[in-house]
């Protein structure tokens, strides 16, 4: 494995073992930022994730949300915000959040770890962006 992969996996493991259930994403994001992750691009429904890091780019392939052909759901900002709030409250798993985002019409999203902002994109150019709070890692 490369240094980039080793560093990313170690940071993800650190974050997953100590992040809080409520408000876990900002904690995860800060651990990744401190490990040199600059940007993360998720593609839905394939669940392919590209991490741009100071050690080089890393692609990770997760379990796809569907198999075969499917209609892309129309963008529904209200449903997306509801999915975000449910996740932020610790009431959904990450796969459940990804599925809810897909059902709300999100085809990809990007996390900018330096600016602390996540931007969600729909197929017809619709976007929704949300900042997340800074977190101090103890």
Major beta sheet summary: 6 strands, antiparallel
Question: N-to-C terminal Cα separation, in Å?
Answer: 29 Å
The SS-based structural class is alpha+beta
Strand content: 25-35%
Summarize the structure.
The protein has 138 residues and is of the alpha+beta class. The protein has helices spanning 3-18, 24-34, 77-88, 94-103; strands at residues 37-43, 48-53, 56-61, 106-112, 117-122, 127-131. It is globular.
Can you walk me through this structure?
This protein has 138 residues and is of the alpha+beta class. It has one domain (3-131): YdfO-like (YdfO-like fold). Helices cover 36% and strands 27% of the residues. It has helices at residues 3-18, 24-34, 77-88, 94-103; strands at 37-43, 48-53, 56-61, 106-112, 117-122, 127-131. The protein has a six-stranded antiparallel sheet with strand order 3-2-1-4-5-6. The protein is globular and about 40 Å long. The two termini are 29 Å apart. The model has no long low-confidence stretch (mean pLDDT 94).
Summarize this structure as a short list of keywords or feature phrases:
138 residues, alpha+beta, YdfO-like fold, six-stranded antiparallel sheet, 6 strands, 36% helix, 27% strand
Task: Indicate the topology.
Elements: H1 3-18, H2 24-34, E1 37-43, E2 48-53, E3 56-61, H3 77-88, H4 94-103, E4 106-112, E5 117-122, E6 127-131
Antiparallel strand pairs: 1-2, 1-4, 2-3, 4-5, 5-6
């Amino acid at each position: 494995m490369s240094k980039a992969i080793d560093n990313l996996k170690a940071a993800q493991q650190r974050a997953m073992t100590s992040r809080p259930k409520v408000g876990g994403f900002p904690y995860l994001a800060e651990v990744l930022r401190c490990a040199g992750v600059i940007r993360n691009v998720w593609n839905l429904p394939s669940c392919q994730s590209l991490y741009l890091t100071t050690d080089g780019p890393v692609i990770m392939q997760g379990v796809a949300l569907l198999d075969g052909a499917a209609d892309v759901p129309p963008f529904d900002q209200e449903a997306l915000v509801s999915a975000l709030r449910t996740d932020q409250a610790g009431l959904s798993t990450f796969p459940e959040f990804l599925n809810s985002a897909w059902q709300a019409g999100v085809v990809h999203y990007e996390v900018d770890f330096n600016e602390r902002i996540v931007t969600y994109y729909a197929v017809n150019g619709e976007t929704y962006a949300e900042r997340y709070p800074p977190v101090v890692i103890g």
